[in-house]
Amino acid sequence: MTEAAAPGPPAGDDSLRGSAGPLRLLSDERLARRAAKGERRAFEAIYRRYHENLYRFCLATTGNPQDAQEALQNTMVKVLRALPGEQRRIQLRPWLYRIARNEAVETIRRRRDTAELAPEQAPAPLEIAATAEARERLRGLLADLDELPGRQRAALVMREMAGLDFEQIGESLGTSAQAARQTVYEARLGLRQMEAGREMDCDAVMRELSDADGRVARRRELRAHLHACESCRAFRAGITERRGGFASIAPLPLAVSAGLLQSALGAAGAGAAAATSALAKPVATVAVVAILGAAAADRGGLIDAPVPGGGSSSTPAEDAARPVGAPLQGGEAGSPTRVTPPAKSAKP
After folding, report:
1. Sequence-ordered strand ranges (E) for 10-162
2. Where does 83-131 have alpha helices with state H?
3. Under 8 Å CB-to-CB from 93, ≥6 apart: which residues?
4. pLDDT tens for residues 254-289?
5. Residue 118: CB partners within 8 Å, gap ≥ 6?
6. How far apart are CA 152 and CA 84, in angstroms?
7. pTM of the complete model
8. CB contact burial 101-128 (16+ within 10 A = b; e otherwise)
9. Taking the alpha carbons of 172, 176, 179, 180 in that order, is the dihedral positive or negative?
10. Distance set, CA 337 to CA 53, 309, 324, 343 (Å)
C-alpha cells in the first residue's frame, strides 16, 4: 500500500533530501529500500513518519508513558539494526507495528517481573491529554484496553488509531486478514461489554457477589462494574474480610478435643443402657395384657406405663437435632402414652 505524499520540508532544509528528491515524499517501499542500503537519512524519515503513531500504539498497549517510550525506543533500535542489508521486500508499516507490539509486550512482562506500581503511584498520561475531561476519558480507555487480551488490544489499536487495513493487521499479527477482522470485532464487543457492566444495577451486582461469596466470575461486565463502583467494591471487600476473620478463630486444642470425644462416647454408652432398661417395662406390660386381659391389667395400673421417647415416631437423629425443651412428635417431652384397650364385645 503506497503512502500518500506528505508536504515537503521547508525551503532550504536539505536534511531529508536525497538524490531522488525529498525523502518525506517517498513511499514506504522506497524508504525501506534506501534504509536497507544503509542510508541514515532514510531511517530518520521512517522515524519521523511513524514515531508518533507507534508511541500511541505502545501507550495503548502498556498503559503508561514511561513504558511506551521505552518500547518505542527499543522498536526503533531493532529497526535500525534490522534494515541495513535486508534483501527481502518489506511491508514497512505492518512490520513496524509488529516489532512495536513485541516490544510493548516485553516491556509489560519486565515490569510485572520486577515491581508493579500501585495505582496511586502509576504515572498519568497527562502530556497527551490537554483537559481534565480528556485525561479522564483516556484513563478509562486505557483501563478498558488493559482488560482485553493482548492480541485483541493490538488489533483494535492498529485498526482504530493507526488506520491499518485488515490485511496489514493480519501481517503484523502473523495471521490472515479474516482472522484479523474477527479479532477486531471481538475487541470491540469486549469493550461494549465493559460499558454495559458499568451501567449494571448495583443491587443485581451485590446479589451476584453474595451468591458467589465474593468470588468474581470471569465476566467482563462484572469486573468493569467493580472497577467503577466503590460501593460494590466495598460490599465485596466486606465478604472477604469477614471470611478472613472467621478463619482466624483459634482451633480447639487437641487435648480438649480428645477429652470431649471420650465424654461423648461415654455419655452415648450410658444412654443406650438406660434406654434398654426403660424398654423392659413396656415389653412386660404387653405380655401381662395378653395373659390377663385388658380390663384386669387396667385395674392393676399397668396400662399407663410410659413409652420411652414419649411415644414419638421420630428417629434418634431427628430427636438429637431438636431444640432443647421442644415437644416431641406425638406429645410433650416425657409424657406417658396411654395404651387404649380394645373395646369389649357386647354379650348377646
Report:
1. 17-18, 21-22
2. 92-113
3. 1, 3, 28, 50, 164, 168
4. 887 777 878 888 777 776 666 555 555 554 454 444
5. none
6. 32
7. 0.53
8. bbbbbebbeebeeeeeeeeeeeeebeee
9. positive
10. 93, 10, 21, 18
